[in-house]
Amino acid sequence: MPKAHTAFGKPLGPSTGAPNTFEPSQGTSTGHLSTFADAAFSSALRLAAVPSLSDHFFDHTPDSLAALFDGWGLPRYRAKQVFDWVYAKGVADPAAMTNLSQRDRQQLGERLTFLKGDVVRHQQATDGTQKLLVDWSSTPDTAPAGTDPTLTLPVLTPRPASGSGCASDDAPDESADDESAWYAGNRTECVMIPSDNDASGRPRRTACISSQVGCPVGCKFCASGLGGLDGNLSTGQIVQQAWQLSWLPGVGRLSNLVFMGMGEPMANLKNVLPALTALTADWGLGLSARRVTVSTVGVPVGIRKLAAFDLPVTLAISLHAPNDTLRKEIIPWASFVTIQDLIDAGRDYFDATGREITLEYILLSGVNDLPEHAHELVGICRKLRCNVNLIRYNEVSGLPFKRPVDTDVRGFRGVLNDAGINVHIRASRGRDIAAACGQLRHEAAGL
Ligand code: SF4
To answer: Are residues 288 and 308 in the same domain?
Structure first.
C-alpha cells in the first residue's frame, strides 16, 4: 500500500526538467496523420505536467528528497547522505546506511520505497549478457491516472499472442490507461550487455532498459508488440532498472545506456525526460549524455521535444524499411508518420544538438534485406546526417519472420559501404536468453 507523505520539493517527474509546453508549429511534419498525432501529443504533454508526490526513492532529485525529509522532520543533509549510499555505494537498504541514526533509518524504511517491484527472473547468457525480468505488481506506481500522453496517441488494442496480426485501430484506445490493464501484465525486462573495451580502453557495459509495460507500436516482428500496451513506467521505475543493472554482481559500472527495451520512449516522455536527468546527473548514474541513446519508432513532436530538453543524447530512429509502403506493413505507427516526416525531425534534432542520428534497421529475411532495399536506404541517408545500425533479427516463436542469412547481411552492408554510408552490423548478444526486446517477458508468460 502506498505510503502517504508530504513533499515540499520537486521530485523527478513531469513538472521538472522539460518545458511544459510545446507548440506544434515548431515542427515541420507534413503528413496529415502525423500532424494530428503531433498536436494531440503536445496537448497531452501539457496535461501531463502535473506535480506528483512519490514514495519511490528513484523518483527524486537530492533537492526534492531534502524537501521531503524537511516535511518529515529529518535534517536536509540526510538526503545527500542517502543519495551517496544509493548511487555511489550501491546500497538501497536503509538499515545498512550506517552514518544515519537508528531512528532515521527506521523512518526511511517505513516511509520510502527504495526498490519497487520484484525480480522474478535473472538470466545470464554464455557471452556474459544478463537479463532481469521485473514484476511491478507488488508496488504499483502512485502516479495519478489520466495524465498519460499515450491516451491521445494511436495506441494499439492489445491482442492475444496467438492472433495472426496486429490490431491497427487508428483511433486512440483509452483502455491503455485502465488500471486493471496496467496491473494485469505488469512485467518489464532490462538487459546488461558487456562488450569489448571502447576506443578509450574503458570496458563497455551497456544497459538496455524499458520505458513502458508492453508497447503501443505493435511492430509485427516484435515480441513486445504481441500484447499491445499495458502502461507507462514511472520515472523511478525507469531509473531503477539502470541502477539495478549497474550493481549486478561482477558486472562493473555502466558506461552506456539505451532505451531499446520494451516500449516507445516518445510515448512516455513525461517520465523519460526526468529519468534522463537522473541517468546523466553527477548525483545520479553519472552517464555521459552522449553515451545514452533514446530509440524511437518515430514521433516527430517527441523528437523535437527531446531536442529542446537540451541534453545531447543520441537519437536512434527505428526505420526498419526504406519506403513508406513496406514500413506500414511491418510497423503500424508508420501509417501516422512518413519517412519524410522522420527525416525532417531528424534534421531538426541534428541542428539542435549536433548529434548525428542513428538509423536502426532490423534485417528480416526476404522482407527488407534485398539489394534494392539497401539502395533505397542509401537515398534516405543522403538526406540526413546519420549512421546506420544493421540488426540481424532474432526469431520470435509464433511469428513468421526469419533471421537473415549472413551473405545477405554482408551484401546489404556492402551497398551502404560503397555509397560512403557509415554502417555497422550490430553484434547479436544474449541470444541464448532471448535478449531481443520483449522476448523474455513473452516466454515467461508462456505465450
Ligand atoms: S520493436 Fe520496439 S517499437 Fe516496435 S513493438 Fe517492439 S518495442 Fe515497440
So the answer is: yes
Instruction: Give yes or no for a contact between 260 and 241, defined as CB atoms under 8 angstroms apart.
Output: no
pLDDT band at 141 (very low <50, low <70, confident <90, very high): low
Give per-residue pLDDT as tens, 34-74. Answer: 443 444 444 444 333 333 468 899 999 999 999 999 999 99
Question: For residue 223, which atom of ligand 1 is closest to its CA?
Answer: 6
pTM above 0.85, yes or no: no
Give residue 15's pLDDT band: very low, low, confident or very high (50, 70, 90): very low
Active site residue 376: no
User: What are the pLDDT digits (tens) for 363-385?
Assistant: 999 999 999 999 999 999 999 99
437 catalytic, yes or no? yes
Catalytic residue among 360, 372, 437, 443: 437
Residue of 223, 212, 228, 227 whose CA lies nearest to 156: 228
Q: Which atom of ligand 1 is nearest to the CA of 262?
A: 7
Among 111, 130, 149, residue at a domain's last position: 111
300 and 418 share one domain: yes
Q: How far is Cα 165 from Cα 329, in angstroms, rounded to an integer? A: 11
CA of 49 from ligand 1 middle (Å) equals: 26
Query: Is 104 within 8 Å of 413 (Cβ atoms)?
Result: no
Ligand 1 center from residue 262 Cα (angstroms): 7
Instruction: Measure 22 CA to ligand 1 centroid, in angstroms.
Output: 25
Angle between helices 300-308 and 269-280 in degrees, nearest 10: 30
Pick the closest to residue 189 from 422, 19, 375, 433 (CA basis).
433
Picking from 167, 138, 122, 142, the residue whose alpha carbon sits closest to that of residue 55 is: 142
Residues 84 and 137 in one domain: no
- CATH classification at residue 395: 3.20.20.70
Domain that holds residue 303: 118-444
Q: Is the minimum distance from the CB of 216 to ligand 1 under 6 angstroms?
A: no
With a 6 Å cutoff on the Cβ, whether 297 touches ligand 1 is yes
The finding on whether 436 has its CB within 6 A of some atom of ligand 1 is: no
Instruction: Give yes or no for a contact between 196 and 143, defined as CB atoms under 8 angstroms apart.
Output: no
Q: Is 152 in the pocket of ligand 1 (CB under 6 A)?
A: no
DSSP SS3 for 77: helix
For ligand 1, whether the C-beta of 55 sits within 6 Å is: no
Sequence letter at residue 361: Y
Ligand 1 closest atom vs CA 362: 1
